[in-house]
Design brief:
elongated, 15% strand, single chain, five-stranded mixed β-sheet, alpha/beta, 3 domains, 12 helices
């Protein structure tokens, strides 16, 4: 809507501050595009917070005349919300509320547009079924979580997960098919772009069974610049939160032993030694990374993820030094998704021990081997043929040791 007494330079400034989008809270509709026909033309209305006439909604005998062309009193709105604030629901749209909407929108636009080109990140989405639940990962929620530190480099993400898979993580076929698909997708859509230096930073959003997350991390490795995000339960989003005071990880070392080593990440839940020895069918030298009160929403901040990476890298070296370079290390992850990916990223293919990643699944009777990572060419592959009695893993695990 053209308001002739408003100078063109004020209208232009308002369009710039609003980035051509509706400033009503939660709308953000583009005002240069018809959503049905996709025709491009101006669909905006310039609305007054304090109207240009004293007898209008929210009118004032003095301020209406003073503010009628003042940019601080103008909002860019779509037709629906222009009608809503001036005709349909005037009582619910007081001056203070509309000013707050305008300010919040313009601050957000200023923050986003101030991000330089070097802060762009390519969004990587990976999801796989967890139990009987699918794991959709939303591009929109991922893009919102990146701001204000980074912004999406492209309008489409790099999606690595299978679509509409009917396989569930209690079957051997699930691990074989999902791991092969993930490797293939990564080799096809990520590796070539990294080699051509088309990607400078990866923003990773993943939700899948933990052995697959470790595999994803090992494919990423720590060479490309990347940040792995965590899906929080409270509030339910991917944004990093403030670092909790006094936080630290606990890493007790086992006494010297000739038993095979096991690395347990007891972070999201408590994991008893009995569960590990039962899965292995015998004694183990159990190395453990934990926190005082394991829970599934403890990971809040980037700093906690950084602390984890700095802790685990030398830990892997200590395990290798004690147990030998050719030892198979069994890994039992009960940890946040971001840390599972980060664990895979810090692995060094030529230096670290070969790993066998276990998965906890109540439908299968406890921990069971899922994937081998960093396996030497001379070693026998993991046999994932499901036993006839899935709740009796003692003999089954002896066979795949």
């Amino acid at each position: 809507m053209s308001v002739s007494y408003i100078p063109e330079k004020v209208k232009t400034r308002l369009w710039g501050r609003a980035a051509g989008r509706c400033q009503y809270e939660g709308c953000n509709a583009p005002l240069w595009l018809d959503p049905v026909t996709k025709q491009e033309f101006n669909t905006s209305y310039i609305a007054h917070i304090v109207p240009d006439e004293p007898d209008g909604p929210r009118g004032d005998p003095v301020r209406s005349k003073v503010l009628k062309a003042d940019i601080s009193n103008l909002m860019l709105l779509c037709d629906t919300h222009h009608r809503l604030i001036d005709k349909e629901d005037v009582a619910a749209h007081a001056e203070a509320r509309l000013l707050a909407m305008k300010l919040a929108h313009e601050r957000r636009i200023e923050t986003v547009t101030a991000i330089g080109p070097s802060r762009q990140g390519h969004i990587v989405l990976y999801g796989a079924n967890i139990g009987d639940h699918a794991s959709p990962v939303s591009y929109q929620r991922a893009a919102e979580a990146m701001l204000p530190d980074r912004f999406p480099a492209e309008t489409n993400p790099i999606s690595l997960g299978m679509v509409n898979s009917s396989l569930r993580d209690k079957t051997a076929d699930f691990w074989r098919v999902e791991s092969e698909h993930l490797r293939s997708m990564f080799t096809t859509f990520v590796t070539p772009r990294l080699n051509r230096c088309e990607i400078s930073h990866l923003s990773v959003f993943a939700l899948a069974p933990q052995p697959l997350l470790v595999l994803l991390g090992s494919l990423l490795c720590d060479l490309p610049a990347a940040e792995v995000y965590q899906l929080h339960r409270e509030p339910p989003d991917w944004r990093w939160q403030p670092h909790p005071n006094g936080f630290d990880y606990q890493v007790p070392e086992p006494p010297p032993s000739n038993a095979a080593p096991a690395l347990v990440f007891a972070l999201s839940a408590t994991v008893t030694d009995e569960r590990i020895t039962r899965a292995l069918g015998g004694p183990a030298a159990i190395w453990r990374v934990s926190i005082p009160k394991p829970n599934n929403d403890f990971l809040k901040s980037k700093t906690q993820a950084q602390q984890f990476r700095q802790l685990v890298r030398p830990l892997m070296d200590r395990i290798k030094a004690r147990h030998g370079e050719n030892t198979l290390l069994r890994v039992f992850p009960t940890m946040p998704v971001a840390l599972a990916v980060d664990f895979g990223r810090i692995l060094m293919p030529k230096a670290d021990l070969p790993l066998r990643i276990y998965d906890q699944n109540h439908q299968s009777g406890g921990f069971a081997p899922a994937l081998d990572i960093n396996r030497r060419p001379s070693e026998s592959p993991l046999n994932l043929e499901t036993p006839k009695n899935p709740r009796n893993y003692d003999n089954y695990n002896k066979a795949v040791r």
